[in-house]
Amino acid sequence: MHSPALIGYYTMVRKDVFRIFRIWTQTLLPPVITNVLYFTIFGTFIGSQLQEINGHSYMQFIVPGLVMMTIITSAYMNTVSTFYFAKFIKNIEELLVSPMPSWVIVAGFVTGGVVRSFLVGTLVILTSLFFTHIVVANVLIIFAAAFLTSFLFSLAGLVNGFFANSFDAISIIPTFVLTPLTYLGGVFYSIEALPPFFKTLSLLNPILYMVNAFRYGFLGFSDVPIDVCFYVLGGLTVLFFGITLALFIKGTGFKN
Amino acid sequence: MAESEKKAPALHVAGLKKTYQKKGSPVTEALKGVDLTIESGEFFALLGPNGAGKTSLIGILAGLVAKSAGTVEVNGISIDTDPDTAKSFIGLVPQEFNFSIFEKVEDIVMDQAGYYGISRAEARPVCDQLLKDLGLWEKRQAKAQSLSGGMKRRLLIARALIHKPSILLLDEPTAGVDVELRRGMWEFLQKLSGSGVTIILTTHYLEEAEQLAKRVAIITKGQIIEQGTVKELLSKLNYVTLILDTKEPVKDAALHLLEDMGVKRIDEMTLEFNLSPGQTVNDAIRRFASTGIDIMNVRNAGSRLEEIFMNVIEKHK
Ligand SMILES: Nc1ncnc2c1ncn2[C@@H]1O[C@H](COP(=O)(O)OP(=O)(O)OP(=O)(O)O)[C@@H](O)[C@H]1O
Ligand SMILES: [Mg+2]
Fold first, then answer.
1. What is the mean pLDDT of residues A116-122?
2. Residue A256 falls inside a structural domain
3. Residue B3 pLDDT more than 60?
4. Ligand 1 environment, Cβ below 6 A
5. What is the pLDDT of residue B179?
6. Domain residues for A118?
7. E strands, chain B, where?
8. B6 in helix, strand or coil?
9. Cα distance from B108 to chain A (closest Cα, Å)?
10. Cβ separation B98–A15 shorter than 8 A
11. Do A100 and B118 lie within an 8 Å CB cutoff?
């Protein structure tokens, strides 16, 4: 016999995963198409004219970064939209009247985001095989970086969902914060190539550490020490979990 | 359990307050210190006009609304110290539809079972039975958006009962339900009450409260202003109002003789008065006859509880 909390968690995840597959043209397909464009334009058209980076082609260099970008967006969009819609149509109350502990409900939402990220990430990696071959330096690091990053951004999306009170509010952070930070987070270039000022500035961007950790798992090198990457990633995840849980328990933004 | 050991009441509410504060809008005191005890197995009705605070109260009990002050115990469990256990006793039928209309009827009920920690195998037969009992069996595979208003109400009831709660809270369950369906719902609730479930229902329909509930509380402007059994309320506030049609126009002199009975003239040939405690209709008619007024017809001025309700609310305006 399973514990009630586990059954509740399973019910939430099952429902979200069914939803992700049911509307796959909205959840799984768009990032694949976007990445095919990136691979074609940056990797093939432009990349062929660029030098190798640490012995890898430009295409090989950008694939991990692009996958990480996809993971970040998918995780964030999944939780922000599921929570916002649940709040909007009020079926969030189905969870709130239940005896499920708050942390289990938070975990349920977050797992949906993590699952979607992994599905999309896998699809994008498979797609990249049409453009280049992939090397793997450390599978464990790949999975740890992907898991922590998707977990972190699922939490962040959830917090956005608590506060969002219009459809527009769910795309403000992705558009104005996440996309710029990701573009500037070393997806397309090594920060070694930047002037010192911009290099230092880049070090303040948390996404830089995630992209580099993930890339390290494939290519075996990173612009920043790999242990620092995981301290940043782990620290932020713990911090955000605390914040998200506290806000959820208080019901900030969705409870009267 | 020893005989002397009294079972905790299903619900014990003391000094309950709720203030809504939103930036840019005035502060609303929705509940101003509510005290309420409902024993296990009771059928209790909460009557009150729009904006009285019924939904706020129900919301706090169910864990959807954060209270501002006071204590709430559900089967002796405080909602502050052990909210999850307290919630497990309660089933909620909310005033507004709060399921996803894009989901299938049976999925809505089955997923709710999951949230209550009930495995799908265990929930299946309960779900099927509820859908049959509530006339939703044919629609079980349909999306909720294809249900009629009355069916949606019944879906809310099925969902609320999937974990076999010992307390069922219903917030205006018969709003927008036609007479026939309403009677069906009443029967269903009475059967449920017979099986030992504590039922607390809010309503605007006084007939509903009178029919179903043993005990009634009247709430207005965030305060409970009367509570007791229906009988108690009726005898306490004796407001049996009768309307009399007379054979001939009533003379002022005759009316004067009946002043002590509080007889009012509605029009030339219609009188109204309140039957006082202990006074029988026979007594009253005799008095009318003695002053030369011939009565053609006696009518009740409407639902008795309705009368009380209106009077009490009026007094608190
Ligand atoms: N979320 C909210 N924010 C601000 N004020 C609210 C909120 N919910 C309710 N109120 C106010 O609290 C008071 C009580 O409302 P409530 O919904 O509890 O009444 P009710 O008795 O259920 O009314 P009805 O019979 O119309 O359903 C009203 O003045 C209402 O405007
Ligand atoms: Mg209400």
1. 98
2. no
3. no
4. A 256; B 20, 22, 28, 30, 48, 50-56, 95
5. 86
6. 4-250
7. 11-20, 28-38, 43-47, 69-74, 77-78, 90-93, 167-171, 198-203, 215-220, 223-229, 240-246, 264-267, 270-275, 295-300
8. coil
9. 9
10. no
11. no
Site to substitute for ligand 1 among B54, B60, B64, most atoms within 8 A of C-beta: B54
Give the whole-angstrom CA distance, residue B167 versus residue B160.
10
Contact criterion met (CB below 8 Å) for A42 and A58: yes
Q: Is the pTM of this model over 0.90?
A: no
Q: Which domains does chain B have, with CATH numbers?
A: 3-229 (3.40.50.300), 233-316 (3.30.70.100)
Asked if ipTM goes beyond 0.90, one says yes
Amino acid, single-letter form, for residue B216: V
Residues with CB under 5 A from ligand 2 (ion): B 54-55, 95
Q: What is the pLDDT of residues A128-147, one digit of tens each?
A: 999 999 899 999 999 999 99
Split into its structural domains, chain A has a count of 1
- Using the Cβ of A140 and the Cβ atoms of chain B, whether some distance falls under 8 Å is answered with no
Cross-chain Cβ contact B115/A98 below 8 Å: yes
Spatial separation of the C-alpha atoms in residues B189 and B200, rounded to whole Å: 10
Structure confidence by residue, pLDDT tens digits, B113-168: 999 999 999 999 999 999 999 999 999 999 999 999 999 999 999 999 999 999 99
Nearest Cα residue to atom 4 of ligand 1: B20
| Cβ of residue A5 closer than 8 Å to a chain B Cβ | yes
**What is residue B307's predicted lDDT score, i.e. its pLDDT?**
64
